[in-house]
Design goal:
476 residues; single chain; 2 domains; alpha/beta
Length: 476
């Protein structure tokens, strides 16, 4: 009886082991090659899974073991980089710069995949130093166009209930105040004009930086490239008119019962849920939010909404971000380069439509006519992004040594416009201007210290006297 129990236990252990191997994606077929793949973008998970299934059906000799990274994704990347254990293919390791990964010889260049002929199929702007390329070599296959901005989503049900036509959607700050106060008054305080996910400081950073460029366009809009650097003075510039006036305007919206006070506690998903539930007429979020609003599993599954440009002080132009920072990278330690090439070539041919367009979260990095969009508002989102994605100077192309400089500079900053706004809205900060002054002093100190450390970087590397704001910048 005891021997029989041992035999049953042994069989169970073998069965569990086989199931574990299957669940991990490992193939027991010696004729199959398994490629490991880390996905860092949850909004693409479903589409990647479907795409991989189709790929494996057409390439039965290759199996893709995909893992979508969760909250510990950054730690996984850091450990893998430290131990040279990156997977065969992975979505951008955003814990360090592309230059740093190349310097450590951790990345395989993609020149055999993105040939000159293939390269011409993409928008020229996606081939950007330290994001997709290092010199003449390509190290990242861009997943999207890089055009990214905060947009204003509007709830059509709320607008209709309070007699506001789509032609009356605010484009200026004064109009935003007027319409928002009208909605609040008509609803007896039950509905606000605007909701934000201000608990996410990075999203508030994007919102402020973007709005501020309408007033002070010489300060770079990106929170990923040159945070608060003025391309006319060549210095950090937190205390500029754009930042000051934008933060004060958002505070005025809250004081005037236009901005929901709960916004300071809301993250993206909570703000989206309340917007869809009719708690506000308008909602500020990135271009990816449309796919979340429509999603009935990961979002509210709400359809009756529209999208408009961000309102600005005078209703005029602003800068959107234009950085191709998300893509597919390949480990230099891969033992299956031939199979990796097969996967990447298949992705170039099919993935931009089946994954990127189908997700509705991003615009593809090449011209693809989308006659059957994933949802009605998809093309409008991309149209607005395109209107405000205007080429700005690239410090990395002017001097590649600024790549490490910027990484160290941004790593030394403890302040952000988003955190200052959060403190101001919550009453923890009484004087936003004074906080911006503190941020300015810190940023200038960090900037100057790095200038001393980087012998090949000068302040002139951050000055572009030939740049005319709101005109596409070119070195030609």
């Amino acid at each position: 009886m005891l021997k029989t129990s041992f035999k049953i236990m042994a069989l169970l252990l073998v069965t569990i082991g086989l199931l574990a191997a299957c669940s991990s994606g490992e193939s027991n077929d010696p004729n199959k090659t398994t490629l490991t793949f880390w996905n860092r973008l949850p909004e693409l998970t479903t589409q990647f899974e479907d795409f991989i299934t189709t790929f494996e059906e057409e390439h039965p000799d290759i199996q893709i073991d995909m893992q979508t990274l969760g909250a510990s994704g950054n730690q996984q990347y850091q450990t893998a980089i430290k131990n040279d254990e990156l997977p065969d293919i992975f979505v951008t390791a955003n814990v360090t710069s592309l230059q740093n990964l190349v310097d450590q010889e951790l990345l395989h260049n993609l020149n055999d995949v993105v040939t000159p002929e293939v390269k011409e199929e993409f928008y020229p702007g996606v081939w950007s130093e330290n994001f997709t390329t290092i010199g003449e070599d390509i190290y990242q296959l861009p997943l999207n166009s890089g055009k990214s901005s905060v947009l204003m989503y509007y709830n059509k049900d709320v607008l209709e209930e309070y007699g506001i036509s789509e032609e009356q959607i605010p484009s200026t700050w004064d109009e935003m105040l007027e319409v928002g106060k009208s909605i609040y008054d008509q609803s007896g305080g039950g509905v606000y004009g605007l909701i934000m996910g201000a608990e996410a400081n990075w999203l508030s950073d994007m919102t402020i930086n973007q709005m501020a460029t309408n007033i002070t366009p010489e300060v770079h809009p990106s929170i990923d490239v040159a945070r608060q650097l003025n391309y006319k003075s060549g210095n950090p510039d937190f205390v500029n008119d754009g930042n000051v006036e934008t933060i004060e305007f958002l505070k005025t919206l809250m004081d005037e019962n236009v901005l929901s006070p709960a916004s300071v506690e809301y993250n993206e998903s909570t703000a989206i849920a309340n917007f869809a539930a009719g708690k506000s007429a308008f909602y500020f979020d990135g271009n990816w939010a449309g796919s979340v609003i429509m999603n009935d599993e990961e979002g509210p599954g709400f359809e009756n909404w529209g999208v408009a440009p961000m309102p600005t002080k005078d209703g005029g132009a602003y800068y959107s971000d234009m950085v191709p920072k998300e893509g597919l990278m390949v480990s230099n330690s891969t033992e299956h380069w031939e199979e990796v090439q097969t996967f990447l070539n298949y992705f170039i041919e099919n993935g931009y439509r089946d994954v990127i367009v189908e997700s509705g979260a991003h615009e593809p990095p090449m011209d693809i006519e989308v006659s059957d969009p994933p949802f009605e508002q998809y093309n409008k989102i991309n149209e607005i992004n395109g209107q405000n994605s205007i080429a700005t100077p690239s410090i990395y192309e002017k001097n590649s040594d600024t790549i490490g400089f910027i990484q160290d500079y941004q790593g030394g900053l403890s302040y952000s416009t988003g955190s200052i706004l959060a403190g101001y809205l919550q009453g923890e900060v009484s004087d936003a201007g004074a906080e911006l002054e503190k941020a300015q002093e810190e940023a200038q100190k960090v900037f100057d210290e790095n200038l001393e450390q980087y012998e090949n970087v000068n302040q002139s590397d951050f000055v572009f006297n030939d740049w005319v704001p709101f005109e596409p910048y070119t070195t030609e």
